[in-house]
Structure formats: structure tokens, C-alpha cells
Amino acid sequence: MGVFRPLKILYVQVLIAIALGIAVGVFWPEFGVSLKPLGDGFIKLIKMAVAPVIFCTIAAGIAHMSDMRAFGRLGVKTLAYFEVVSTFALGVGLIVGNLARPGAGFNVDPATLDPSVAAGYAKRAQEAEGVAEHLLALIPDAFFGAFAEGNLLQVLVIAVLTGFACARLGEFGDKASKFLEDLSKVFFSIIAIIVKLAPLGAFGAMAFTIGRYGLGSLMQLGALVATFYFTSLVFVLVVLGIIAALSGFSILKFIRYIREELLIVLGTSSSESVLPQMMQRLQQLGAGRTTTGLVIPTGYSFNLDGTNIYITLAVLFLAQATNTELSLIQQVTILAVAMLTSKGASGVTGAGFITLAATLAVVPDVPIVALALLVGVDRFMSECRALTNLVGNGVATLVVARWEGDLDRERMLRELDAGPTALAEPSPRQLAAADAD
For 153-210, what is each residue's pLDDT tens digit? Predict the structure, then answer.
């Protein structure tokens, strides 16, 4: 019976599911494509509970804060960190793209490409443009509309307002915040049930990816994919590694600690599929509830390190593939525009591709139809984008928590040394520890 014990561990089940999904996609591609609903269904189940978890966690956390100015300071520090690190990620993509030149030698004639492939993404990119539109998008049309649409930023706004309201209502506000805390425990319990389906979701998503696009498309543009994976790995180990070291922890130990979440993301190509689990993991590491509740969901729109690397690297790849020379001024312009476009479409399916289309709009020398070159491998790169985004947001939470004095450093080091424990619905002991934080 001991031989089968590892099969009870979730990340082992996910690994097996990914391997089986690849095999199905290779040998029975049509059947693999038909399994897409398994992956989509798992992500939809997770998203169903994500918004209520964020709302309850943030609203209750703010309601318990005695100093409202501290929350404002937390928000400013969070956004400042996001902007600096995100810009650095964009710069890394530009530097590697110029050095590695993954698109050199393709000699693609844009006239031979299908314009209809890029047209839809270009149209959606135009819809996502505009600073005013981004700001208005933060305001929901109705209180429950944000929950129905799963718009995390709008839910965040509602949660902040609710938390402030509870803080102003004295004893009644305390009762309301206690109710929100109890309600969050229900949703975390729902998440614990749903996450057991992660192997099924990973199996379906991976079978679809390989069955639909095939390993052949991966090999065809292997230089770009390999460059992107290598660049993301260097960014995580070096850039985020240095940030982590300055904050008192090892990036390698942190990656080991969230390995289960990383494997689920690898299988589903979506970092949102583990958002609630990451919030629990980070609180287990000693990050405060309010900091975790604010940084993680905000990071899903403002701290997309993997997406940023992809944008600048992909723009240079398309320019090189179509023999389009970009001047230094044009590349700096790409960097500046991407700082805005990378914040715009994070909640939209195919966000990386849409953001890339929006960025290409400022470089008319690179034909928009060149996006067709990336369609076959974008799904493979979306996995790396999601993995890098997840690690980046996890590191950001611990860093900001330390800045705010909201991190139990001894507990973090102890947890990282011990390694991850299985996540389940919170036990009474865990809930008591969370309340003490």
C-alpha cells in the first residue's frame, strides 16, 4: 500500500495528468481537442469562488485596521513595487530579444500571412486602449455585477469601500466584518473541494493544447519559445532571486513551497486557477491577511512579469522575422507603451495576445498580420507567462508585507525550510492563527 501513497499527493496527480494529457494529444489529437471542456470547466469552477474570497478577505481585513492611513500607504507601496519590477521585466525582454535575435533568418513575407488571424485580436486591443477607459473599468455598473462577471479589480474596489464602511460603523461594523470572516471560511472550503479536480482540469487542458496545435508547431518556432522560457527562468532566478534575497528568503525554497500551485498553472495555463490557494500559502508563510488580500489580486492586473517579458520579446521577434529594423527610439517607445497596455486586458481571455496587438499598434513598421506567426505557439508560451506571473506576485506579496511590518519572518523561514503542507479547508487551529495575525 505504501507504493501508492505518493498517488494521494495532489502535485503528483497533476504531474501524471499532464503526462497523460500530452500522450493523448500526440496519439489521439482529435480526442485531445474534444477534452477542452475539462480544463475550461475547472477554471470556471475556481473563478466562481475567487471573487467572493477576495471580497470577504479584503473587506474584513480593512475593517479591522485601526489606522486607515496605513492602508493607503500599503496601496502606494504595492503599486510602486509593481511598476518598477514590471518595467524591469519589459526591459529584460528587449535586451534578450536584441541579443538572441530569435526571429532572425525567418524572412517572412507579410503578404503570405492570413490577415483574419490577427484582425480579431487587433480589434479587441483597440477596445482595451485608453487610460480613461481603464479607470472607468474599475467602477462596476452594479454591486453584484462585478461578482457575476468575475472582474477582480472591480471586486477589489467594492471590497475596499465595504471595508472602509465597516470601519466607520463601530460595533455594528465589527459584527459585519466578523460575518465576512466566517463567510470567507465557507468559500475557502469550497475551493478545497474544487482543487481536488485539478488533475482532471490539467489533463483536459494539456490534451487540448497538444491535440490542437501539435508538437510540430512548437518545433517550428522553437527558437522563440526556448528564448522566452530561458528569459523567464533567468528573470525568476536572478531578478526575483535578488529581490527575495534582499527580503530575507530564498527564491528556490519559495518555488519549492508553491510547487503544487505551479504544476496546476502549468496544466491549466492560467494563474487564476490557483489564486485562492496562493492567498492561503502566503498567509501560511506569515504574510498578513490584509496585505495578501490586496497585493495578490491587484498583482493579477498590475504585476504580470511573464506577460511583460513576452510582449517586448515577441515584438522584436516579429520585427526580425519580417526583416523590419527598429530604431532605439522605436524600442523605447514600445517599452513606454507596453507599460500601459500590459495593465489593460489582464481579465480578458487571450490577454497576452491582445496586449501584444495593442503594443504593435504603435510600431506601424511591423505589420499587424505578423501576429499570425505566433498563433500556433502562443498557447505553449501562455503556460510560461502564467508561471512567471504567479511567482512574481508571490514574491511581491512577501516583499510588500515585510516593508509594512506585516510579515512574520521567523514563521516564513520555518515554513520554507519545512516545505509545503497539503492545503485543505482551514482547521480551527489554522483559523485561530489567522485571526491572531
Answer: 788 888 888 888 888 888 888 888 888 888 888 888 888 888 888 888 888 888 888 8
| Residue 348 falls in which region: left (phi positive, over 0), alpha (psi -120 to 50) or beta | beta
Name every residue whose Cβ is closer than 8 Å to that of residue 204 and which is 6 or more positions away in sequence: 21, 35, 36, 37, 38, 39, 40, 41, 42
Q: Which residue matches cell numbers 496546476?
A: 264
Question: What gap in Å lies between CA 230 and CA 384, rounded to an integer?
Answer: 10
Count how many residues are written for the chain.
437
Specify the CATH number for the domain of residue 108: 1.10.3860.10
In a domain, 51, yes or no: yes
pTM: 0.78
Contacts of 399 (CB under 8 A, 6+ apart): 81, 243, 244, 247
User: Within a domain: residue 151?
Assistant: yes
Which range marks the domain in which residue 24 is found? 15-436
What is the domain count for the chain? 1
CA torsion, points 94, 97, 98, 100, in degrees to nearest 10? 150
Cell numbers describing residue 433: 492563527
DSSP H stretches of helix in 221-304: 222-234, 241-246, 251-257, 259-268, 275-284, 289-302
In this predicted model, what pLDDT tens digit does every residue of 101-118 receive, in sequence order?
888 877 777 766 655 555
